[in-house]
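forwarding from the other thread:

> can someone predict this with adenosine-5'-triphosphate?

sure thing
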Amino acid sequence: MSEIKKEKAEKIVAVKGMNDVLPGDAHLWELFQNTAQSVVQSYGFQQIRTPIVENTALFARAIGAVTDIVEKEMYSFTDSMNGDQLTLRPEGTAGVVRAVLEHNLVYEGPKRLWYTGPMFRHEKPQRGRYRQFFQFGCEAVGFNGPDIDAEMIMLCRRLWDDLGLENIRLELNSIGDAEERARHRVDLIAYLESHETLLDAEAKRRLHTNPLRILDTKNPTMQEMVNGAPKLLDYLGEESLAHFNGVRKILDHNNIPYVINPRLVRGIDYYNRTVFEWVTDELGAQGTVCAGGRYDPLIQMFGGKPTPAVGFAMGIERLIELMKAAGEPDQPNQCDVYLVHQGEQAQLQAFVLGERIRDAGLDVVMHASTANGPGSFKTQMKKADGSGAAFAVILGEDEVANHSASVKAMRAEEGEQQQSTVPFDDVVDFLVDQITGGDNHHYHVHDENCKH
Ligand code: ATP
Ligand code: MG
């Protein structure tokens, strides 16, 4: 015992780059989740939930060996119980595709799927870049036309609108198919070699492994040089070009603005044809809030029948930051009713009443005792006020004796009746009537963003 007392317990803190979402922010996450879910449902997408841990081989194969993610960002470990090589998922597509194949999901036809959850990448933590971060994504599996690409882009647009986010622009490109990229690659490498003195160390390293990714560089001293590099768009064959123009036609017809960014590529090997990003200037260097594209070759790479697919993933932390900047919706009240009670008998009755009020669909916080004791009437009323409740329901000795409760309107305007004595058995009806009924009630209790 004295041992414990002597040693001051060392503080354990969160893992670097992994954030807590505290109650003050959680309602924004809830709002994002509810909005995103209702948007994707309005396009007929269905949820899929896959494990956070997968076999390392899944990502090595799906994402490609010479990518940032597989080269240096994965949380991989050996399961000490059985020696399995496992990885915390760095992204969602690989797991979804694995599940689709494992359960033969596209057997009955193409599928529109969505997922959300934490992803893990060992990167240098900074604004908009964390080691645990959350994505919301969609995958449409089994569709090959440009129409679904356009649909997914329009779905994103609708989500930005529903979230009240402006200033997110769409960048669009086509990276063709493997053959077209191979032809482009020869010219690209030659071009980059002729500017070798301008290449940074990272670019030199990638010159012969993943030169396309050099186009994506964030190094300002290389911008001008990469701007002059051969453009993949100029290497597209007829079919790829027709696909790209098909996407553009639908976007144009629906007045979805975009800019064609010939340098837009994906860091992941399995993409082909359409690639897109939604970008904002409001978040500093980490301005991409959503990235997507086609990945027709992936499913065959996994041993499945050739199955075209397209998807995107959004970074939720970055979108939450934009939501905050756009003007935070008020934090919803903790409850509709705060239950104040004095004395043992009143406490017992308060429990009964609390359950009844909840049965009627209202949110109730019942005062609970702390180290300071059960709390004086004054203390409890202060708590009631702080909770944002529309009503305090008060049970004291007098109320118990009279089989009644006092109901106090906490947000009453001047001249309105503030406190009523209500028979115990009528309290629920009284509250429901005050809160939801009547034309001229003044209590706006249920925030529309707050689901009950
Ligand atoms: P970057 O080039 O910025 O590293 P990426 O190509 O690695 O991006 P994707 O794999 O396409 O990013 O992920 C899709 C989205 O997920 C990104 O556009 C971003 O919004 C978000 N995202 C990716 N990595 C992180 C991270 N470490 N922390 C927070 N959000 C992230
Ligand atoms: Mg990255």
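The chain is about 40% helix and 20% strand. thats all i got for now
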